[in-house]
Design a protein that fits this description.
By secondary structure, this protein is α/β, with parallel strands linked by helices. Helix content is 34%, strand content 28%.
Length: 316
């Protein structure tokens, strides 16, 4: 049994708690927020034994083996280091950190302490993601010739919310672009060997829209990432013999195999559920087997994303 503590009592942490409740081999033993009352309300809602008003108290709790970090991006780096220093394994919500240097530091620290660390890229663990990857590997669409993806929605332009506030680690790349980078490579089984893009910034200075071009070992891919419009959030993988459409590329349950004329040939569908349970099961497996990293969501995944942030956003 891996006993998790949760840092942060927002919506993503609630989704994590609900997923953990239906995942074998794990339990939530504590939650911490900067506001103790909020932590107490969260604990009462999810049946969690301990609620704390600061993170240090959670990290001194011996009933906590591992920590899920679900607060805003600006806090992730310091929280990861605090957790590792306290001897806790870590599953950190994406974007894990803002820069490659910080990512390297965190993974090196985890490795030196023999602790598990993974960015919570839950979309990699969805059954539909595995199916898409299998279709590509099996040659169901022939050789891949290109990829197109859109991901985004219209977000209220409030300079104080987590999307638009620089202080909270806001920006479309950290919130949504990470999915495009990770999944385009994961779906196709190809490394990203180059990139360039155009960044449109909001009045607060964060990136509001990014047009991102990726080179997948010589194959072109493009992703539109935005907070400024509701877009389909679909990914299309084009091949010489057909197309794969991934509706709602970073969540949901379906994947569709199309012929060259875009007619549906086959559909994979997994019943709707909280897909976070698959990444939680992976973290529990790795921790239980003394692993410091996951093969499905390895450090290289996080390092590449943060390298692209450095380049496009000037975060070095």
């Amino acid at each position: 049994m891996v006993r998790f503590g949760i840092i942060g009592a927002g919506g993503i942490s609630a989704a994590f708690a609900k997923a953990a409740a239906v995942t074998d081999g794990v339990m939530i033993s504590a939650v911490a927020a900067q506001n103790k009352k909020r932590a107490q309300l969260f604990a009462a809602e999810h049946g969690i034994a301990h609620a704390y008003g600061n993170y240090a108290q959670l990290l001194s709790d011996r009933s906590v083996d591992a920590v899920y970090i679900g607060n805003t991006t600006n806090f992730h780096y310091q929280c990861i280091k605090m957790c590792l220093a306290a001897g806790k394994h870590v599953l950190c919500e994406k974007a894990m950190v803002e820069t490659e240097a910080r990512a390297v530091e965190c993974f090196d620290l985890a490795r030196s302490k023999g602790l598990f660390l993974m960015e919570a890229m839950w979309a990699r663990f969805l059954p539909k993601s595995e199916k898409v990857r299998d279709w590509v590997a099996e040659g169901r669409i022939g050789a891949v010739t290109g990829v197109q993806a859109t991901i985004g929605n219209f977000v209220e332009k409030d300079p104080e919310n987590r999307f638009y506030s620089p202080k909270l680690g806001g920006g479309a790349m950290y919130d949504l672009g990470v999915y495009a980078i990770d999944l385009i490579s994961y779906f196709t089984g190809k490394d990203i060997t180059g990139w360039y893009g155009r960044v449109v910034r909001a009045q607060t200075g964060v990136d509001e829209t990014v047009s991102l071009n990726l080179d997948l070992e010589g194959i072109p891919a493009h992703a539109l990432i935005t907070f400024n419009a509701a877009v389909p959030e679909d990914c299309y993988i084009y091949g010489e013999k057909g197309v794969i459409r991934v509706p709602r590329m970073h969540w949901g349950s379906d994947a569709v195999l199309l012929d060259p004329m875009m007619n549906e040939k086959e559909r994979f569908s997994q019943p709707e559920e909280n897909g976070m349970r698959f990444e939680i099961a992976e973290a529990a497996y790795c921790i239980g087997n003394g692993m410091c990293t996951s093969e499905t969501a390895p450090p290289e995944m996080t390092l590449l994303s943060s390298r692209i942030y450095d380049d496009l956003l000037g975060t070095k």
